[in-house]
Each structure stands twice: as structure tokens, then as C-alpha cells.
Design goal:
Elements (H helix, E strand, L loop, with lengths): L1 H11 L2 E2 H12 L7 H13 L3 E8 L2 E8 L1 H12 L8 H11 L5 H30 L4 H35 L1
Antiparallel strand pairs: 1-3, 2-3
Length: 176
């Protein structure tokens, strides 16, 4: 996930580790803490693998490393973008990262990504509706609160679907 984000950000322009860390924090939201202890070792790994190059630049008496994506890194970026989003705890984050950098894909690939995200939301709706039916079978105060949380999840998924449909329509207008 972090590798995809870093390579995607570097597709735009060279950046420092500090800039990349801040951008990831903005992308994932203020409650997801992004440690420099994650970013800098990953940058070193990406450099060793030939996906990025780091150049020391001195500014105001300080030495910073500016990271640039290589051709091999661009190939890796497209490989990661084409991989299906796995089921798991961070799949929502992976979709957000992919949506943030999908402009580097052709229109068909962008539509395919949005279709995958759409299906993910439909699956969330089905799972949530199943859970709501199960809760309705037994009346309890605990279930009332759980029901409210599930209603929120349902609304979030429905709003996301509306956003996807609108975005796809705008994409098709923009590219035609």
C-alpha cells in the first residue's frame, strides 16, 4: 500500500521523504498516523530495488534527499495499479490511494478500477443488509446500537456508489 502511494506521488514530481509522509497523511486522513520509520526505510528499499533515485540537495544549510521515480519504478507503479485490491483491513485505504493516482491510467483502466470499487460497495451493502436482518430477529438494546452503526455503513456505501456513478459519467464526458 505504501509502496503504491510513494510511487504514485513520485509520478507527479520528485519529493522528499518528509513531503511524501505528509501527503500520505492527508490521503489517509488525520487519524491514520504515518511514521517516518515506515517511509524512510521503504524509500531505501525502493532505491535498492532501482524503483527510485535519491539525490542530496542542500538548502539553507540543511541537506535533504529528493526522491525521483525511475523507469523501472514507473513499470512497478503500473503493475501495482493493475493488481486487484485484496480483501482485508486496509482495502479502503488502497482504493483511496489508487483513486488518488488513477489519472496515470488510460480511460478503460480507470473505469475498471471504479467498477471494482463499485462492486466492493455493493458487497458492503449486501453484508450490511444481511447483518441488519440478523439483528432484527432478536430485540435488544445492544442490537439497537449495532443497528444504528450498520445504518451508517449502509449510507456510506450508498453515497460512495452515487459518487462512483457520477465520477464515471464525468470521466466519460471528459475523455470524449
Amino acid at each position: 500500500m505504501n509502496e503504491l502511494f510513494i510511487l504514485g506521488e513520485l509520478m507527479e514530481e520528485p519529493q522528499t521523504g518528509y513531503d511524501l509522509s505528509n501527503a500520505l497523511q492527508v490521503s489517509l486522513g488525520r487519524h491514520r498516523k504515518v511514521s517516518y520509520g515506515v517511509i524512510y526505510p521503504l524509500l531505501e528499499k525502493l532505491e535498492k530495488e532501482g524503483f527510485v533515485e535519491a539525490t542530496s540537495v542542500g538548502t539553507e544549510g540543511k541537506n535533504k534527499k529528493v526522491v525521483t521515480i525511475t523507469e523501472k519504478g514507473k513499470e512497478r507503479f503500473f503493475e501495482l495499479m493493475k493488481m486487484p485490491v485484496p480483501n482485508g483491513a486496509h482495502n479502503a485505504d488502497i482504493y483511496l490511494i489508487k483513486l488518488d493516482v488513477m489519472q496515470h491510467l488510460d480511460l478503460d483502466e480507470q473505469i475498471q478500477l471504479l467498477d471494482q470499487f463499485y462492486q466492493e460497495q455493493k458487497d458492503i451493502i449486501k453484508d450490511t443488509q444481511d447483518a441488519l436482518k440478523k439483528l432484527a430477529e432478536e430485540d435488544s438494546k445492544d442490537h439497537w446500537y449495532a443497528n444504528k452503526k450498520l445504518e451508517l455503513r449502509l449510507q456510506q456505501a450508498n453515497i460512495t456508489i452515487e459518487w462512483i456513478v457520477k465520477f464515471k459519467h464525468e470521466l466519460n464526458k471528459e475523455w470524449c
